[in-house]
TrEMBL record:
All residue ranges annotated as the Glycosyltransferase subfamily 4-like N-terminal domain in the record: 29-210
Name recorded for this polypeptide: D-inositol 3-phosphate glycosyltransferase
Provenance organism: Salinibacterium xinjiangense
Highest taxon of source: Bacteria
Biological process according to GO: carbohydrate derivative biosynthetic process
Length: 410
């Protein structure tokens, strides 16, 4: 018997004009950019008039233009930007022009709500100009200042602490203008509340459409470990390669690293030094079809990162029915339940990471099947439709509790 059609609590309500403020967006590849595209597409599919304000990827293409992301078309307002060369992909809108740019876009769109996804530049401009016009403002934090410091050439190490403090003060000012503030997980919410004066932060999963992924529940004929994400220092992929190099040769394991970034050349050199070049594949930047196929082919997914406020790539792996080995850091324990759908390891502990990988790769199929089924069960709670329902409620000023649950009767 087919499932009954899903009914949203917002069915029949007036559609909204929503303006997203995004310091990072396509063609940049990262968790925040993916979330903004997925959220905007989902809202557009529900009939809302969605607009995204984002840095240009070419200053020859500025202003409002219709773009297609995640299978949906909506308007993207591309703002004049510069490339930040210490960073492998980051472009930024000019801080001294952002209030003027924000005011112009707001006057053009006349939104019912502004939802900014970062406090750094565009979020600051949107919140200042939106507040002056009495527009409802919702903010989401995907940001950890520590993650960008490695790309900052002008800040010497002895000033790092002061730079982080300054970044959080700026975040405090911008998020302080929002009616409600959200983060992807409760851990991330607690982190934001500890660093700023913002309180009552709502935990709302970035969400995922599990139907886009294809689990393979049959016994695997090879032992393929997959990592998916940006190839940058904070992901600690070097620890994964070092652990992989110590695995018993009888496992006949292979490692595939899907994603690109500034650490790729260094990691290839490391693989060569450890004698595993022939068994490690660097796929680089890939399209969605390749990404999903890699997850279907994999035996185990590994996420050694220490800076995940949620980890969309881990959710994608879980939606592909994979057991997970992940660092016991930040929000990853929300997704990886040790001994149930995978194993956690002490961050940076190469020997423990290797041990966890060996355990999963050596399991009989009936045991590994339980881990795979548990991954599918856990990720079901992160359905994108629930995420859309919750943000719609926030946009309308309806009550939402701290765990992102829409209050009945709203």
């Amino acid at each position: 018997m087919p499932d009954a059609p899903r009914i949203s609590p917002h069915d029949g309500k007036p559609r909204l004009r929503i303006l997203m403020g995004a310091d990072t967006f396509w063609p940049e590849i990262n968790g925040a950019a993916s979330f903004i595209a997925r959220l905007s597409a989902g809202l557009a599919e529900r009939g809302h008039d969605v607009h995204v304000a984002a840095p240009s990827y070419s200053n020859k293409k500025l202003g409002a233009q219709v773009e297609e992301h995640e299978g949906q078309k909506f308007t993207v307002h591309r703002i004049y930007s510069w490339r930040w060369y210490p960073h492998p992909w980051l472009r930024f809108s000019l801080p001294w022009r952002i209030r003027h740019n924000s005011a112009s876009i707001i006057e053009q769109v006349k939104p019912d709500v502004i939802h900014f996804q970062s406090h750094v530049v565009i979020g600051r401009g949107m919140t200042i100009e939106g507040s002056k016009r009495g527009i409802r403002i919702i903010g989401t934090n995907h940001f950890m200042p520590e993650n960008l410091l490695e790309y900052t050439l002008v800040i010497p190490p002895f000033l790092t602490k002061r730079a982080i403090e300054a970044a959080w003060k700026a975040a405090n000012r911008t998020f302080g203008r929002a009616e409600r503030v959200t983060t992807p997980t409760r851990k991330a919410a607690e982190y934001l509340e500890a660093q700023t004066s913002v309180k009552n932060v709502v935990a709302i999963s970035c969400g995922i459409d599990a139907h886009n992924y294809t689990p393979d529940m049959q016994p695997k004929t090879d032992n393929l470990i997959v990592f998916l994400g940006r190839v940058v220092e904070e992901k600690q992929i070097d620890k994964l390669i070092k652990a992989f190099a110590t695995l018993d040769s009888s496992l006949d394991a292979r490692l595939e690293i899907v994603g690109g970034g500034d650490q790729e050349a260094r990691l290839k050199l490391l693989a060569a030094q450890l004698g595993v070049t022939e068994r490690v594949t660097f796929a680089g930047y890939v399209d969605e079809a390749y990404l999903r196929n890699a997850l279907t082919r994999a035996s185990v997914f590994a996420m050694p990162s220490i800076a995940e406020l949620q980890s969309i790539s881990t959710m994608e792996a879980m939606a592909s029915g994979l057991p997970i080995v992940a660092a016991d850091a930040m929000a990853l324990p929300h997704l990886v339940h040790d001994g149930e759908n995978g194993f956690l390891f002490e961050p940076g502990n190469v020997a423990q990471l290797a041990d966890r990988l060996t355990t999963l790769l050596s399991m009989p199929h009936d045991e590994i099947l339980k881990f795979k089924q548990e991954s599918l069960k856990i990720v079901a709670a992160h359905d994108i439709q629930r995420t859309l329902d919750t943000f719609e409620s926030l946009y309308r000023g309806e009550p939402v509790d701290a765990d992102g649950m829409v209050q009945q009767g709203a």
